[in-house]
């Protein structure tokens, strides 16, 4: 489980830390594209599902401090990061664009779907925009039969935690655009 904290802070804020009630604290990262401070806490699986109050401490450049409470959802079924295909359906021979929002800096993001011949494909961080968004353009083999294909994503954060989730890509009949 890895609940995400996503907060707005005053413009002169230079550090934001979230304190979770289950003994975890997390320094948040400024996502400059969204202008929000974000972070994910890796939580022990024994923590029950539910809403938990999180103390968020914001330090500004002149030494001032703002403390706020935020609610965070802990869910065993929740995704630890956002991921999507630009189009949910791609024809055989077409190109799938996959984007992953890592929430906070990551050291590695990979996609794997043996049925599509995608074996631990490394996603790259963008050269412009948010350093928290990783992506790849991947070709669907022309011999791929129509159907739903599960693509497994693995993200390794800077602390070495490995987080995973699956996405479904639909391969359809037709010609690539």
Descriptive report:
- There is one protein chain.
- This protein starts with a strand and ends in a 5-residue tail after the last strand.
- The strands form 4 sheets. The chain has a 5-stranded mixed β-sheet with strand order 9-15-14-11-12, with no helix packed on it. A 4-stranded antiparallel β-sheet has the order 3-2-6-7, with no helix packed on it. Strands 1-5-4 form a 3-stranded antiparallel β-sheet, with no helix packed on it.
- With 177 residues, it is mostly beta strands.
- It has strands spanning 4-7, 13-19, 25-27, 29-31, 36-40, 50-60, 65-74, 82-85, 89-91, 95-101, 106-113, 118-122, 133-139, 147-157, 162-172.
- It has 2 domains: 4-74, Immunoglobulin-like, CATH 2.60.40; 82-172, Immunoglobulin-like (Sandwich).
- It is 0% helix and 56% strand.
- The mean pLDDT is 89.
- The chain has no helices and 15 strands.
Which descriptors apply to this entry?
four-stranded antiparallel beta sheet, mainly beta, Immunoglobulin-like, 56% strand, 15 strands, five-stranded mixed beta sheet, 177 residues
How do you describe this structure in short?
This protein is mainly β. The chain has strands at residues 4-7, 13-19, 25-27, 29-31, 36-40, 50-60, 65-74, 82-85, 89-91, 95-101, 106-113, 118-122, 133-139, 147-157, 162-172.
């Amino acid at each position: 489980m890895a609940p995400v904290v996503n907060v707005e802070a005053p413009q002169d804020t230079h550090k934001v830390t979230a304190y979770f009630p289950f003994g975890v604290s997390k320094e948040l990262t400024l996502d400059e594209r969204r202008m929000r401070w974000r972070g994910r806490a890796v939580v022990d699986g024994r923590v029950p599902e539910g809403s938990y109050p999180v103390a968020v401490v914001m330090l500004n450049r002149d030494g001032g401090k703002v403390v706020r409470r935020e609610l965070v959802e802990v869910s065993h079924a929740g995704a630890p990061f956002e991921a999507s295909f630009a189009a949910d359906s791609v024809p055989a021979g077409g190109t799938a664009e996959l984007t992953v929002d890592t929430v906070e800096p990551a050291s590695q993001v990979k996609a794997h779907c043996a049925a599509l011949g995608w074996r631990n494909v490394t996603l790259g961080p963008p050269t412009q925009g948010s350093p928290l968004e990783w992506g790849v353009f991947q070709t669907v083999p022309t011999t791929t039969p129509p159907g739903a294909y599960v693509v497994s994503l693995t993200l390794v954060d800077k602390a070495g935690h490995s987080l995973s989730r699956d996405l479904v890509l639909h391969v359809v009949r037709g010609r690539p655009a």
